[in-house]
Amino acid sequence: MIEAKDLQERLLFRAQELQKPVLIFTMNGFQMRGVIVGSDRFVIALKDNKGLQMVYKHAISTVVLAEELYET
User: Is the sign of the CA dihedral 17, 18, 21, 25 positive or negative?
Assistant: First the structure.
């Protein structure tokens, strides 16, 4: 079985590698959109048209590839 950490790292790396937009839902329901430009053990760096943002992973509820939101 693949460990949860490995799945997390694979998803984040793949999204960063493909430069695909993601939608991040925080624990308090806030939504953030952008392209992942980096991540480490604690944070994800997200770039959008307003600039660069750093989001702490413990504040994240869900990460969704934006293109999957529009598939039927």
Answer: negative
DSSP character at residue 42: S
Q: Which amino acid is at 63?
A: V
Mean pLDDT score, 2-29: 88
Please name the residue that has the structure tokens 């693949």: 2
Q: Enumerate the H helices of 1-72 as residue ranges.
A: 4-18, 66-69
| Fold assignment, 4-69 | SH3 type barrels. (2.30.30)
Strand 43-48 relative to strand 31-39: parallel, antiparallel, unpaired?
A: antiparallel
**How far are the Cα atoms of 1, 37, 58 from residue 44, in angstroms, in the given order?**
25, 8, 10
- Asked if residues 39 and 46 have their Cβ atoms less than 8 Å apart, the reply is no
User: Mean of the per-residue pLDDT values for the chain?
Assistant: 89
